[in-house]
């Protein structure tokens, strides 16, 4: 094993943008609209764009590997609303 690789580091780390989206999804939101406001201020994107990217992320094997419980919960929620 090389010096710069550790056993706990993922092989394909998430991008900064992907990490930010996952971070927002991990938070609890007390007020209606607070999440969308955070998306605009922290990511500089619309809610529609955010949810489009989130839906792609929760099906991405790299994200599933690093956040299995979160991605499973989000996929179940998405699939139950269809």
What does this protein structure show overall?
With 82 residues, the protein is an all-alpha fold. The protein has one domain (16-27, 34-80). It is 62% helix and 0% strand. The protein contains five helices and no strands. The chain has helices at 16-26, 34-43, 47-57, 61-66, 68-80. Helix 1 (16-26) packs antiparallel against helix 2. The protein is globular and about 35 Å long.
Order of helices and strands: HHHHH
Task: Give me the oligomer status.
Answer: single chain
Strand content: under 5%
Low-confidence stretches: none
Total beta strands: 0
Helical residue percent band: 55-70%
Overall pLDDT confidence: 88
Globally, the shape reads globular
Largest sheet: none
| Tally of domains | 1
- Per DSSP, the total helix count is 5
Distance between the termini: 45 Å
Radius of gyration: 14 Å
By helix and strand content, what is the structural category? Answer: mainly alpha
Descriptive keywords:
single chain, 82 residues, mainly alpha, 62% helix, DUF3263 domain-containing protein, DUF3263
SSE layout:
Elements: H1 16-26, H2 34-43, H3 47-57, H4 61-66, H5 68-80
Nutshell version of this structure?
It holds the Pfam family DUF3263. This protein has one domain. It contains 5 helices and no strands.
């Amino acid at each position: 094993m090389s010096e710069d690789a550790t056993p706990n580091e993922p092989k394909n780390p998430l991008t900064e943008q992907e990490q930010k989206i996952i971070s927002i999804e991990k938070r609890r939101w007390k007020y209606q609209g607070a999440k969308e406001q955070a998306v605009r201020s922290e990511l500089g994107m619309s809610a529609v764009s955010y949810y489009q990217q989130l839906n792609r992320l929760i099906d991405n094997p790299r994200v599933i590997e690093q956040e299995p419980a979160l991605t499973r919960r989000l996929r179940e929620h998405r699939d139950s609303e269809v």
